[in-house]
Design a protein that fits this description.
The protein has about 425 residues and is α/β, with parallel strands linked by helices. The chain contains 15 helices and seven strands.
């Protein structure tokens, strides 16, 4: 009888523990829900917040899209990747050997600008990987985020000299890149000079086969712009929204009141992050719909908005919210009043917006291309472009991973330095 009583007490304690745990979860969700509801009311009552989250990115899309819709501008450096399948050359005499592969590569490496600087930065693509598998130059170019490569066939010298047909080199490039187009024009002129040297004016011995890096699909500037504008909207929402809200809470003494209530710091952080995700979803939907209706529907492309949707967009959005809410929490600790908070938010977001390649590719701008690699927005934009536009899964996952690393670090720092009792 005593044993049955002890078992009954144990079961009762277990039941009480489950009820207490479920009650804590329920109260936590209620507090987070209350925070989100309050943030939504504040969002609805703030024309400035609505402007930056919806109208501002739409205006930029319409402006840049209208200016550059008919062009394929995407600036890149004259970085040329070369893959040679090997060239034995042709022996003319014991002291002289022709090798057109070496001559062509040397011509690219020694070309100078008017300022006596190297015109091309030549990198070499290996033929095989560590597992002795053949390396596809197009796939390699995408993985290193290059924009133009030259593929030289096996025994190029003897093919040119003794093959009665035209020997073709392969050019793989991003046709949406202005710099790649310029580099292609220069390489074409070099090949033209080689033809003159080999066969004179009446015969073409060396030709060029051109392939687009993205499966021969030309990327319009509008498609290049959309992922950048989505990430800019997420950045403005996260950084400006968090900084302004936290600064307002501090000025009104709201944090002190929260510290005396059941709501703790975890509730505030989760509530703010959840709200920014909801606000980000609103911005993404607005940007995609407006861009589709303005730039795709009039041209008869009704399926574009379906083609670009991918579930990895959710992961990019989550990592963006983590990064920029964390950055906003850090910024809110550095600002003493709402006016200073707005200035600090602009200081953080505006340079990042232009240095990360949201509007134009900056990988070819010396100095800027190094700075861009230090910014979380760069990796978010690259992840979203690979996910929505180019369909390069490996590039998408690499950049998503880096974005989550940024987001985790910034979020941890933001949580650690946010102390409600000191506000």
């Amino acid at each position: 009888m005593k044993k049955d009583t002890s078992i009954q007490i144990t079961n009762e304690d277990s039941k009480q523990s489950k009820i207490a745990f479920l009650t804590k979860i329920q109260l936590f969700l209620r507090r987070v829900g209350a925070y989100i509801a309050a943030a939504f009311i504040d969002y609805r009552r703030s024309p400035l917040t609505v402007f930056f989250s919806v109208a501002y990115p739409i205006i930029l899309i319409l402006l840049f899209g209208a200016i550059f819709a008919d062009s394929n501008n995407s600036f890149t450096a004259f970085t040329v990747y070369v893959q040679s399948e090997g060239d034995e050359g042709y022996v003319i005499s014991p002291v002289q050997t022709l090798n057109f592969t070496d001559d062509l590569i040397n011509a690219l490496q020694t070309m100078k600008t008017n300022d006596s600087e190297s015109l091309f930065d030549v990198h070499f693509i290996p033929l095989t990987n560590d597992q002795n598998g053949a390396i596809n130059p197009g796939d390699y170019l995408e993985e290193v985020q290059g924009y133009i490569s030259l593929v030289i066939p096996f025994n190029f010298t003897q093919e040119v000299l003794f093959n009665p047909d035209v020997t073709n080199l392969q050019i793989i490039l991003d046709e949406s890149s202005q710099s790649a187009s310029i580099a292609y024009s220069i390489i074409s002129s070099v090949i033209y000079q080689f033809n003159l040297g080999v066969s004179g004016y009446n015969e073409t011995k060396i030709g060029l086969d051109t392939f687009d890096i993205y499966l021969e699909e030309e990327i319009a500037y509008f498609e290049f712009l959309i992922p950048g504008m989505i990430c800019v909207a997420l950045m403005n929402n996260g950084v400006m929204g968090t900084i302004n809200r936290y600064s307002f809470f501090r000025k009104q003494g709201f944090f002190r009141k929260l510290s005396a209530s059941p709501m703790n710091k975890a509730d505030v952080v989760v509530g703010e992050t959840s709200w920014q995700f909801v606000q980000g979803a609103i911005s993404i939907i607005a940007i995609l719909l407006v861009g589709w209706l303005v730039f795709k529907v009039p041209s008869g492309d009704f399926s574009w908005i379906i083609r670009i949707l991918d579930w990895k967009i959710i992961l990019v959005t989550i990592s963006a919210v983590m990064s920029f809410v964390g950055l906003g929490m850090i910024g809110s600790r550095l600002s003493k009043n709402p006016d200073a908070a707005t200035a600090l938010g602009n200081f953080l977001t505006f340079p990042m917006m232009f240095l990360s390649g949201a509007f134009f590719d900056v990988s070819g701008v010396p100095g800027v291309n190094v700075i861009s690699k230090l910014l979380p927005l760069t990796y978010l934009i690259d992840a979203l472009r690979a996910t929505m536009i180019t369909g390069n899964v490996s590039i998408a996952w690499i950049n998503i991973g880096i974005s989550f690393a940024f987001g985790t670090a910034l979020m941890i720092i933001g949580i650690l330095i946010t102390k409600l009792t000191e506000e």
